[in-house]
Amino acid sequence: MITTGGVAPKTKSPPRVGDRVFRTPKLLISRASFLPLTVMTLVLGVFIALALRTQERIVKLYPSSVPNFEQSSLIYAVTIQKMQTMIFQQQQEIGELTKGRGESGPRLETMKTELEDARVLAGLTAVAGPGVIVTLQDSAKKPPAGISPAAKTQFETDATVHDQDIIRVINELRAAGAEAFAVNDQRVVVTTAIRCVGPAIQVNGVPLTPPYNVRAIGDSDTLYTALKLQGGINDNLQAFDPAMIAISKSSSLTVPEFTGATALKSGHPVLSYDGQKVSNAAIGAAG
Question: Over the range 73-83, which residues count as b (16 or more CB within 10 Å of their CB) and which as e?
């Protein structure tokens, strides 16, 4: 067929054998998945826009430190990877803590109890409970007239409560199972020094004056009996003047906490490489 212009129109030739026919695939996207894909595309677009804007700011501020967009993208990728690693590690730690809280609950309670007992024995917390109160005071007796100066000096010494008297009382109570001690308001701990300084007795470096009230917490019957043993401190003081010592039971008394310094200056706990305490046997074997 010849057109008016004399040029024949182009016609499609039929496909030959062996030729491949290409067809445009149809997009199989359901309406249910269209909205999530749209949201993800928008979010991705926002992140890309933010990255580009941040890149422009970095280039303006530090043009020599970021030469091109490819290097900046690499920096972003590394940063994101690090953040993901941190999040993963924190999730693992939270999981371990949560798991440990459920499995180690009884053990944690036992550790708390042991710690509180240790604080009591160390004198770092006030303690209340049954026990005994021992009151020591100087004798009001006067030396007989006409005795020698040496005899008079000995009389005055025997009529006075000394640091050794308080120490003997505490040792008797400790041997009987007392758990906490105090002299007046001073808690007795492992570092407590009880000594005579002039006319006063110092406990923890604090001068005290008579009467001296020694309070001890423990089984009141056992502690009372221990102090009444024949030939003990009670007999020694009462032999001179029964008024120098008085012992009474108490169903409830309070021993204050230690208020002095507790930091070690020279010593430290002996630990093994895994952080556990070394037994006394191991210390002895090590020499």
Answer: eeeeeeeeeee
